[in-house]
Write a structure and sequence with these properties.
alpha+beta; Jelly Rolls; Arc Repressor Mutant, subunit A; four-stranded antiparallel β-sheet; 11 strands
Amino acid sequence: MDFQNSFPVWNRLNKDQQERILQSLISKSVKKGSVLHDGSGCTGLMLVETGQLRAYILSDEGREVTLYRLFDMDMCLFSASCILRSIQFTITIEAEKDTRLWIIPSDTYKSLMQESAPLANYTNELMASRFSEVMWLIEQVMWKSLDKRLAEFLLSEASIEGSSELRITHEAIANHLGSHREVITRMLKYFQNESMVRLQRGRIELLDEDRLLKLCDG
């Protein structure tokens, strides 16, 4: 699929605006584990063609927590945070899988936003959607117990991967949930003792998704 068919408001831009995007557009392929944005600059607006990205924040103590994830045809606005005056926090974006994406440089996008009402409206909607995800995460961290968050995460991973056998480490789960590896390991062992999962090195097999779902609903 080409960029023109993937960018949501492409047909609402005029010919000159479309041409300016195409002239500045960057196509990029990155390997799993690559960091695309570390908050030290203004990378630009990202549009995922195929693959999977993860946006997370890092505490002063080095703990990570996943804010949201990006899949095929998803847009990442916070990688171009310099165009948003009110953004005051640093987000890191890394590839969770081999990924192909397009990047619209920040200067290009900002100038087009100033003259295109459809693009400005779309940007505001995208920002509101991402902030809703972040607020949902804050509510989960503050009010939901870790066993429920872990069960929900495992079920979400199984849905994303289309498999009940997950290739993921306890450390990676801890990074997603903003917890410690030792805490996640203890909770997973509890799940295993309750016959909800089976643990192997670098793998977790979901044995009873119904019970995990009931735990989420709690």
